[in-house]
Amino acid sequence: MVANALLGRPGGGVLTARFGAAWGLDGRGEDDIRRALVLLSDHELNPSTFAVRIAASTGASLPAALLCGLATLSGPRHGGASALARAALEAAMRGETETFLATQEGQSPYGFGYGHPLYLDGDPRSRLLLERLPHDHPVRHAQRGLSARLGQAANVDTGLAALELAHGLPRDAGFTLFATARLAGWIAHAREQARSGALIRPRARYVAG
């Protein structure tokens, strides 16, 4: 049902086939979608998952907890980052890397798909997505150039953006895949938190300005 809403069309059956039909993908494209869905299904206590667990800890319904996750995921520094990662790749493919970077002055490369605080040697999820593209593919060439320029390995947002460009997917496809995949993890987290019966209530300390 969530996939139907995100794709904007009704359907049933295997999830990868539904994405394939909506986006006109061949078998290899559907395999890439399957890989992305598996890799993105859970990722510890990232912001959206933590939001889900907080809501579930209050006794909120499962749909309400999932809505908290979706709202948090929509932020440009979380699930929405693949849009800017795509813009970075497109700029690099046009030979306009420096122009793009000038528009992002003061922003961490993490916000447009490079570097990750948990993966100092590179995001393994991104590697597993990017390896599906031929080494000499223009998107791979653009990604390597950006990584070299920034001194940071690509993260999963660049991996999603690369899939979008390589398969001619809509601009919001990365977010659609991220949200659909992560819902499975959120449901598991919400149920686990609800069973624990514990209320998540962090403390704050006032610091005079």
UniProtKB/TrEMBL annotation:
| Similarity comment | Belongs to the citrate synthase family.
Pathway it works in: Carbohydrate metabolism; tricarboxylic acid cycle; isocitrate from oxaloacetate: step 1/2
Superkingdom as given in the UniProt entry: Bacteria
Where is coiled-coil annotated?
Answer: none
Q: Which cellular components does GO assign to this protein?
A: cytosol
- Enzyme class comes to transferase
Keyword Ligase included in the entry's annotation: no
Q: Which GO terms describe its molecular function?
A: citrate synthase activity
Which Pfam families has this protein been placed in?
A: Citrate_synt
Origin species, per record, is Alloyangia mangrovi
**Would you tell me the protein name for this molecule?**
citrate synthase (unknown stereospecificity)
Listed A to Z, the keywords are: Transferase
Q: Does the keyword Transferase apply?
A: yes
What's its EC? Answer: 2.3.3.16
Q: Lineage of the source organism?
A: Bacteria, Pseudomonadati, Pseudomonadota, Alphaproteobacteria, Rhodobacterales
Return one Gene Ontology term, BP aspect: tricarboxylic acid cycle
